[in-house]
Structures are given as structure tokens and as C-alpha cells.
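Dock iron/sulfur cluster; give full complex structure.
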Amino acid sequence: MNSFPRLHTYDDDSLCTYKNIFMIIVEGKAVDIAKLDRTGFLDVEVDPQLDLFAEIARLKREKNAVILAHYYQEADIQDIADYIGDSLGLAQQAEKTQADIIVFAGVHFMAETAKILNPGKKVVMPDAKAGCSLADSCPPVLFKKFIEAHPGHTVISYINCTAEIKALSDIICTSSNAVKIVESLPADQPIIFAPDKNLGRYIEKKTGRKMVLWDGSCMVHEIFSLERITKLKHQHPDAKIIAHPECEEPVLAIADFIGSTTGLLKYATNDSAQAFIVVTETGIIHQMQKSAPHKTFIPAPPDNMCACNDCPHMKRNTLEKIYLNLRYELPEINIPEPTISKARQSIQRMLEISAKAGL
Ligand code: 13P
Ligand code: SF4
């Protein structure tokens, strides 16, 4: 069944159906909305004369919508967002928002989390193809078998996973609360940790607990070059190395500070150092520069000459797509029952433990 709205009138535009093919008239052109499954967004040209900043602000006001954006979004998107944050902050905001529509400028698992936590709201995202290599590395069918092979284990899953994986898990965590979540369980409780093996190893080291790790990783954080970061450090001996725990162990071993995106931002703002080598996706540097304009932030290089320290999924979102997303409310996130209820239990457990820990 098609989950898109069947009839809706947009100012001057209209929506019609023809032999079960759903057509939408967008910017004067007919668009087959079934195409959204393939493209991930409404693939139509936006008038280049349009003041996108003003239009987005107007639509937000008129529709009582809120834009939640992750730190890895491009600078313009961060600047129009109502809230910018890490995965935990974004989930907390999504749960409590009073807006009618949540426009999620991030990746698919983040928008899904917003819908799971606040199912009564309409959750839309600028490009539904904005996925995550880490989430993709953990297919539900295989994960179910993995859990069955380890009876008696509590399943902790990193929030970077699909709604189906969340529904199979006991507790969710993010990089900012993972240590607290693991420590909240009795010391002798066996744990499965998925899908990020790098974050898993980092938590094992921090807590001294052995866990059964799923073999997943992030394509962006795995590509940083230890050799090139070390060279950079020689060129900038006073710069501190700050890294996200999704990085591989040898990179984390030379870091002065390890933390979630919010953790890295706070550290870079408050620490006395004047320069930082930032070992995570480059989007975060926009907020670092805003909160400490006098400091220097050097993006850590990947192991080749590509721009692989930009997440290709996060960077699928653009201002144009946000405008179209707000205007036509497509694509929309919908999650079936019982997945949504089961996944909510594991996320809510995380939020409760986080609240107790003051996070
Ligand atoms: P944070 O929760 O630290 O923002 O991390 C999200 C993410 O996708 C990192 O790759
Ligand atoms: Fe996923 Fe890595 Fe992109 Fe984060 S940076 S969204 S973990 S692919």
C-alpha cells in the first residue's frame, strides 16, 4: 500500500491519481511520487531566484514545523535549524517537540528515531536515501540469528541502526551515553554490543568489560589515516587531537580527547588549547568555529586524497531539498507496528538512564 497522502492541495499546486499511479504537480510539473522510492527526494527544479532562507522560514511558521539538524549537515542547513545536536540531543528534542511537523536534516535512522519517539507527529526528511554505512552493516535477519546464538545476553545497540534492529534490542545507546548505559547493567551480565565494533572496543576499554561485538563500522571514521594525522601533529605540535569513538583503535590511541560530536564541540570550546586536529566528519567544524572564532580547527585527513571525511549520506541533504520537503511534506517517515512499539521501549530505556545520569 502506498503510504503517501492521496489528496492534498498545496496553494497553487495539486495532487491527483491516475490508475493507481500517484502524480503530484510540483513547481508546474507532474511528478510520479512512486519515483520517490528510487530518488529519495522530489527531483524537481527549484526557481533559482527563490530566497530559500525566507521561504523555509515562512513555511516553518505557517505549518508549525521544526527543523532538527545533525552537526554533520552543511553550514547553511545548520544555520536555518531550530536545533542542532548529536544523536542523543536530537532524540531528546524530537520526543518533546510541540511542532506538528519534524523536518529531520540528518540520516534515515535519526528520522526513524524521531518518529518512534513521537509517532503522533509527521516526520519528514529532505532525502530518504540519506542512509548510514553503520546501520547498513547490520541486517535484521542476520542480527536475529546472532542474538539467538548468544542466549542470556542483554542486547545494547548503538542508535546508528534501523528501527528493526532497535526493536530487537534491549537498550539503545549513543556515543555520549554508551559508557553509562553499559555500566548501568550488573557487572556479570553478558552483553551483545552492535553494530559498531570500534565504539564497542572503546567502551570495553573504558569499562573493563568484555562484550560480544557485531562486526560493523562507519565508512567515514574508518578512513582516517594514522600516518597523516601524525604528520599533521608534527606540523602543529600545539594542536590537540580530538576524535569520535567510531574511529579505529590506533587513531583513538593518539587522541587527547574522545567524545561524541557534542562532547568534541564542548571540549574544543572550553579547553585552553588554541588549535585542534578534528578527527570526525567535517560538518562539526562549522559550530566549533562559531563558538570559538579565535581558535584553529584542522580537519583530520583520510588515507587518500578524497573528501572521505565528509559523510556522503549526511551531505545528500541540501537547502533546496529542505524547502521541497517542507512544502510538499514528502518523503515522510512511516514505521509499522509492532516495530515502532518495540523500538520505543529500547530507546526509552536509554533516555531514562541518560536522564538519571544528567545527560
Ligand atoms: P553523534 O551522536 O556523536 O553525533 O554521532 C552520530 C554519528 O553518526 C557519528 O558518525
Ligand atoms: Fe553513518 Fe558514519 Fe555517516 Fe555517521 S558518519 S551517519 S556513522 S556513515
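Observed: The CA atoms of residues 57 and 80 lie 8 Å apart.
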